[in-house]
Amino acid sequence: MSTAQIITCRAAVAWGAGEPLLMEEVEVSPPQPMEIRIKVVSTSLCRSDLSAWESHAIFPRIFGHEASGIVESVGLEVTEFKEGDHVLTVFIGECMACGHCKSGKTNTCQVLGLERRGLMHSDQKTRFSIKGKPVYHYCAVSSFSEYTVVHSGCAVKVSPFAPLEKICLLSCGVAAGLGAVWNVADVSKGSTVVIFGLGTVGLSVAQAAKLRGASRIIGVDNNPQKSEYAKAFGVTEVVDPNSYKEPIAQVIKRITDGGADFSFECVGDTDMITTALQSCCDGWGLTVTLGVPKVKPEMSAHYGLFLSGRTLKGSLFGGWKPKSDLPSLVEKYVKKEIQIDDYITHNLPFDDINKAFNLMKEGKCLRCVIHMPR
């Protein structure tokens, strides 16, 4: 039986779209059945946090979802975790019992899929409050708080020997890019890959494509600072769309003699999805979209692109089933088979969280890791 009590701690609360986060004293309820409460150790800022902060209407809210921590307490019926376990949080869960989880065909759990209303999966309530008034969750995690409560299906137990301040990146961005290449696209050796957007996700695509043996990895980005990082992750050449008078899809088709074998949209721009499709070759060209659009969620493309043999696939968290697959990714990092450290361009204390938002808005970082007080 759980004996956990309400905890009062600090959290970075968003009170309105685009407004600076404020450090507030929040009450964090005990974990309910099938939930765990986590002491957050490290959390990194993902672009989807930024996009949601700029555009969502649900406030007050605690953002953050890419995080690592230590289990502080467990609710009733939780058998998988105990106090002291090291965990990664995940924005899509794995109940391991629904039809989707059992199918082997998808990682979108029917019970613990994307949560958009800022409430817990189990009872549609929040676990945060300020002076009795609710504060809403984000992506079933809300890691911009010293303590958070998640459904036990939205956490993954990891080795206590893996550095929590590094592997937090595997709970979203880096894992998403690796999986898009290995699981969703199944990139082949010797192929040509084009990546639209050289942020953390795009550069994770590059790393995975390099490990698969792609012969040519073309990065498309108009931020010169991003291109500086690119070659360290396997990008063989960077194309700046602003340097050409012709549409970038035509540039890609010209320099690849007909189009890339695989293209990845990592920006979150639906117009860019069409561009990525146009950049693929006829017959077998495959486009994978990973980005989350902030505006204009609808896309359009000429049907002829598909009649000619191109394919468009969506990728959510790289196709990984979090509980089943993330521990092996952590192990790959520990064995130095994949890299994470170089994505971390800034390490910041929790009090400087607004600096992390500004750095990402200005395009001056890949990942800012925010460290909670010990």
Describe the fold and architecture.
The chain has 374 residues and is of the alpha/beta class. The chain folds into two domains: 7-171 and 340-371, Medium-chain alcohol dehydrogenases, catalytic domain (Quinone Oxidoreductase, Chain A, domain 1, Alpha-Beta Complex); 175-316, NAD(P)-binding Rossmann-like Domain (Rossmann fold, 3-Layer(aba) Sandwich). Helix content is 25%, strand content 23%. It is built from eleven helices and 17 strands. The protein has helices at residues 47-55, 99-103, 164-167, 173-185, 200-212, 224-230, 248-255, 270-278, 304-307, 322-334, 353-361; strands spanning 7-13, 22-28, 35-44, 66-74, 86-89, 128-130, 133-135, 147-151, 155-157, 192-196, 216-220, 237-239, 262-265, 286-289, 311-314, 344-349, 367-371. The strands form three sheets. Strands 3, 4, 5, 8, 9, 16 and 17 form a seven-stranded mixed β-sheet that branches. Strands 12-11-10-13-14-15 form a six-stranded parallel β-sheet, with helices on both faces. Helix 6 (224-230) links the parallel strand 11 and strand 12 (237-239). It is globular, with a radius of gyration of 20 Å. The chain starts with 6 loop residues before the first strand and ends with a strand. The mean pLDDT is 94.
